[in-house]
């Protein structure tokens, strides 16, 4: 019995793991507050419902526990589907249409990974597409190092509550 449970976990746990820690977001002011409190960038992954490369990236890259540990220490990780309709809460607390939010960043393909300040300002060039885990990890680490350096030197956002600041 234990063996069967182990096999089931080995087969399905990586996909459940990725879904659990790379959470969807509709309130970017909350993500901004968390990023401000932790003094880290926001890592926004834009996906598509029918994106084969998004699914492959989740299976080959995002499901890895070493990637999870690396990113959770260095960024607030969130996901937004390009097909999501309706309105979301922007970084300043105002409601905005999802397509307007994404257009601001020039999203033209999925997956696209953005590194943003708590104000929503891009901190590094977007990482568009997915090829393989090794080269993707290398390009992500370079962009993340650049973004982290910029977050550490920025002033707090005026729209965040004073009590939320470190």
Structure description:
This protein is an alpha/beta fold. The protein has a single domain, classed as Glutaredoxin (3-Layer(aba) Sandwich), CATH 3.40.30.10. Helix content is 48%, strand content 16%. The chain contains six helices and seven strands; from the N terminus they run αβαβααβββαββα. The strands form two sheets. The protein has a five-stranded mixed sheet, with helices on both faces. The chain has a two-stranded antiparallel sheet with strand order 4-5. The N terminus and C terminus are likely disordered.
Secondary structure layout plus pairing:
Elements: H1 2-21, E1 23-24, H2 28-38, E2 42-47, H3 52-62, H4 65-74, E3 76-81, E4 87-89, E5 95-97, H5 98-104, E6 112-116, E7 127-128, H6 133-152
Parallel strand pairs: 1-3, 2-3
Antiparallel strand pairs: 2-6, 4-5, 6-7
Write a brief caption for the model.
With 166 residues, the protein is of the alpha/beta class. The protein has 6 helices and 7 strands. Helices cover 48% and strands 16% of the residues.
Key terms for this structure?
single chain, 5-stranded mixed beta sheet, alpha/beta, Glutaredoxin, 7 strands, 48% helix, 166 residues, two-stranded antiparallel sheet
């Amino acid at each position: 019995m234990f063996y069967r449970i182990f096999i089931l976990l080995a087969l399905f746990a990586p996909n459940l793991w990725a879904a659990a820690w790379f959470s969807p977001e509709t309130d970017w002011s909350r993500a901004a507050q968390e990023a401000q409190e932790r003094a880290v960038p926001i890592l926004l992954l834009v996906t598509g419902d029918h994106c084969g490369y998004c699914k492959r990236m989740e299976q080959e890259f995002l499901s890895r526990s070493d990637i999870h540990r690396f990113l959770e220490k260095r960024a607030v990780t969130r996901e937004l589907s390009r097909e999501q309709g309706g309105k979301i809460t922007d970084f300043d607390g105002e409601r905005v249409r999802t397509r307007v939010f994404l257009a601001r960043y020039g999203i033209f393909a999925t997956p696209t990974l953005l590194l943003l300040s708590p104000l929503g300002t891009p901190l590094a060039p977007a990482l568009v597409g997915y090829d393989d885990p090794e080269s993707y990890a290398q390009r992500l680490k370079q962009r993340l190092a650049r973004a982290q350096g910029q977050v550490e030197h920025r002033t707090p956002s005026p729209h965040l509550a004073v009590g939320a600041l470190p």
